[in-house]
């Protein structure tokens, strides 16, 4: 085991340490207990997608195998050491509460992926990112449901629901889960399936981070030969003067199962200036894709780069969003309606923020829209999962993106303002925020919707000491 300087005042494995004893003693003890590929680093080495409200632990323990996770959580639980499990490190919420007395259990190196013979199932570990899975599936002539950005941990996204471009056809990520191997709040390993423990399964599939640390899972896979594993997608650039027309057309378009779409306000790759970019996705041919999105395409774009592309490049357009570091205090809301006046206000707020801070030129308004009828009817929308927002069409996010903490206050005010423009015409009876996109200033009812009451009950049963308390904790 490689041990760099350990700055930890936690008490783990029966040994209490203060920051002054940042030496190998604690590490030696850990070494005798955990696998030889485990590494321990001081917190400064930790890279996350957003530095805003990031956890600042005493140490980051990067585990070598799934058993290590159980051992560390058992020790942390015995000694009341706060811990945060980190996989892709993309979570941007401000609900992390880890200081020098706590540790990060980094599971990002658990990368195993194995398909069954006929490619109908895949078993993978918790450090697997969307990109890892896409590449493995591609190599196996398979298509596995993943989320839109390559850097995100597949399980990290899935445990909150897991939105996917192909969810109209295959369901949300949680609908693809077959079983999970997890460690509970006291460090006990369990295999959970919908049948083995229906209540825990329900809680895990929507509020997973509150109920266990999933170390590996078995998930559905579709056998699809590479030559057929394609979709029609790409960037379509509109003029900002067309925002009202584009938003109205998006609002009025009912997405069929094979369709998905995004709309961005972001620095245009054409000229670096604020731009309006539409991203249609159709799991089929260009000809039919163009027909399905005709009401938007017919508005007349500045540039249309859509084409039929292979599964292993579907996420490429999102790669710039995966850039780690910088401050990104983001705000979201779920939308059933999109109202042109509200979106003109959002555009004006976006360009004003963009123009006010030169370093904030990656600031983005990102909206992802999904077919709802299909997810609502999907295999497991029979009440066996706790994800509460299957009827939400669009998920809008305001992402301010900069480096100076001096801009924080302006960025927060801006994000809240944009969210309030959306909230006024969201078309929902209650304001909703997808747990994986939320900020942390919302009410728990806004995050967990109609599942909140039952989740709170189950929290008492499965995590009575509230140790899994870092991601929108159910108090
Ligand atoms: C660029 C970008 C694009 C995104 N695109 C999408 C998208 O298309 N669809 C979508 O649904 N979401 C998307 N998200 C949101 C994403 O789902 C969440 O940020 C998710 O929480 C990230 O998980 P992570 O493991 O990468 O991050 P982390 O910060 O490591 O984890 C986030 C939280 O989940 C917990 N967690 C992670 N893994 C596990 C595990 N195995 N067991 C228990 N708890 C765990 C962590 O403890 C932490 O509290 C995107 C985020 C970013 C930054
Ligand atoms: C943060 O954690 C500390 C213990 O490490 C606890 O005392 C404090 O109440 C927590 N704060 C919040 C807001 O939960
Ligand atoms: C990783 O997957 C392979 C099959 O591809 C399997 O033989 C091996 O046991 C797995 N290793 C771990 C540590 O799970
Ligand atoms: C694929 O193999 C599994 C066993 O691993 C079997 O249960 C399933 O019926 C097979 N499916 C198809 C479509 O062949
Ligand atoms: C955008 O529209 C405005 C007003 O219609 C027009 O003046 C401008 O030239 C257009 N820009 C581009 C890039 O087409
Ligand atoms: C954004 O700003 C940075 C400096 O803050 C600059 O290096 C970069 O070129 C700018 N990007 C664009 C697209 O203008």
Can you walk me through this structure?
- This protein is an alpha+beta fold and 475 residues long.
- The protein folds into three domains: 6-106, 2-Layer Sandwich (Uridine Diphospho-n-acetylenolpyruvylglucosamine Reductase, domain 2); 113-225 and 451-462, 2-Layer Sandwich (Uridine Diphospho-n-acetylenolpyruvylglucosamine Reductase, domain 3); 229-449, Vanillyl-alcohol Oxidase, Chain A, domain 3, CATH 3.40.462.20.
- The chain has 15 helices and 22 strands.
- The protein has helices spanning 24-33, 66-79, 130-139, 154-158, 167-170, 173-176, 198-207, 243-252, 286-292, 294-297, 340-356, 372-377, 408-423, 444-448, 452-462, and strands at 11-12, 15-16, 39-42, 59-62, 83-86, 103-106, 113-115, 121-125, 142-143, 177-183, 189-192, 213-220, 222-223, 230-233, 236-238, 259-267, 274-282, 303-304, 307-310, 331-335, 364-369, 394-399.
- The strands form five sheets. Strands 14, 15, 16, 17, 18, 19, 20, 21 and 22 form a nine-stranded antiparallel sheet that branches. A five-stranded antiparallel sheet has the order 7-8-12-10-11.
- Strand 10 and strand 11 form a beta hairpin.
- Helix 8 packs across helix 11 (340-356).
- The longest helix has 17 residues, at 340-356.
- The chain is globular and about 65 Å long.
- The relative contact order is 0.13.
- It binds flavin-adenine dinucleotide (FAD) and 2-acetamido-2-deoxy-beta-D-glucopyranose (5 copies).
- The site of one 2-acetamido-2-deoxy-beta-D-glucopyranose has 3 residues, from loops.
